[in-house]
Design brief:
This protein is of the alpha/beta class. Helix content is 44%, strand content 8%.
């Protein structure tokens, strides 16, 4: 695994941004990851003794550790874990759907009384001291990426109950969408004031293996406008807007590009559409992130893994618009050596 360090990689967010915007052939492979489980981070910091110069009692030790680890791995960004708090229950009322006991089948808002009583978060009350610290201490050639979980409407209403509400009480659903959008816009506006923030990452799983969760027409009319508002806010402040959305989104992909104007799309599974095929279809219009199928990343031996990563890079990297990473995230069941092999192959790829 020492080969991981045979080629030095320095953070270069400007280069990453140019790669995302497809301005030229990138000079090196840029990495991006939606998430890395804390157990993975801990294993890496222990394995490579990355905490030896850090003070565990520092008030922002978490971010000191994050900067050290991501620089070591060759990333140009760190994840800043600031999120508005949306309670999953109101006054301890259990979320009970009419046809399922699944905890995400229903949500805390089922009627107008619930809507009026829901304790919507106030962004002005959020503790942003971490961003204040990062504004001063984050290396100039790195930026923060911050998730904006606009897809939380599925938790507020419940996925199964939404399927009924979209026909039985569309006005309530629309009110929830509008209120959630207002909160997330305020959040995006606030965090975009910081120069250390480079990426707003909208999060909203919209589908599964064969199709979208909701009819494409419903998504275009009700859900994509929320993303469009966030993308416009991000772009007004000079930030990139990424979208993390699992599932088969072929029927709305053109809308994501032309209406929402996402800068990059994340989350790919080979059983849906491999990232290499997505590059052929959309690579001249939008950047693609990750795409090393998580199942393959877990199961493949080193030779097969290196071969597949080279294939992905050979197809996806020319012209820019691609960053190497997993198809979803580095979960705790991803073999650590395989994760490092992926990074190593990217480091040594001849652009």
């Amino acid at each position: 695994m020492n080969r991981l360090f045979s080629k030095t990689v320095q953070p270069d967010f400007c280069g990453l941004r140019e790669c995302i915007q497809r301005k030229s052939n990138p000079k090196r492979v840029f990495f991006i990851e939606f998430a890395q489980d804390s157990s993975v981070k801990n294993a890496l910091t222990e394995r490579f003794n990355l905490m030896k110069d850090l003070n565990v009692n520092h008030p922002f030790f978490f971010y000191q550790k994050e900067i050290t680890l991501q620089k070591f791995l060759g990333y140009d960004t760190i994840s800043c874990c600031l999120l508005p708090k949306f309670p999953s229950q109101i006054n301890d009322k259990k979320n009970e759907a009419s046809i399922s006991e699944d905890k995400v089948a229903s949500g805390p808002i089922q009627n107008w009384e619930d809507f009026e009583n829901y304790p919507w978060p106030k962004i002005a009350d959020m503790n942003l001291s971490a961003l204040d610290w990062l504004e001063k201490e984050l290396p100039e050639n790195m930026k923060c990426r911050i998730n904006v979980p606009i897809g939380f409407y599925k938790m507020l209403l419940g996925y199964e109950d939404m399927l009924y509400m979209m026909y039985d009480n569309p006005s309530l659903m629309k009110a929830v969408f509008e209120k959630l959008t207002a909160v997330m816009l305020d959040y995006t506006r606030t965090i975009s004031q910081y120069s250390c923030v480079g990426i707003i990452w909208g999060c909203d799983d919209m589908g599964f293996k064969t199709q979208t969760f909701f009819p494409p027409g419903f998504i275009r009319a009700n859900i994509l406008p929320m993303h469009k508002s966030l993308a416009e806010m991000a772009h007004q402040h000079g930030k990139l807007y990424f979208l993390h959305a699992c599932g088969n989104l072929e029927e709305i992909m053109n809308d994501l590009i032309t209406m929402v104007k996402i800068d990059a799309k994340h989350s790919f599974e080979d059983v849906i559409v491999p990232v290499t095929e997505m590059k052929k279809r959309y690579g001249d219009r939008v950047a693609l992130l990750g795409g090393v199928d998580v199942d393959f990343l877990c199961r493949a031996d080193e030779l097969a893994l290196r071969k597949r990563i080279r294939e992905i890079l050979e197809i996806c990297l020319p012209g820019g618009g691609y960053c190497l990473g997993s198809g979803n995230s580095i979960a705790d069941y991803v073999p650590l050596d395989n994760y490092l092999i992926m990074l190593d192959e990217g480091r040594n790829f001849n652009c």
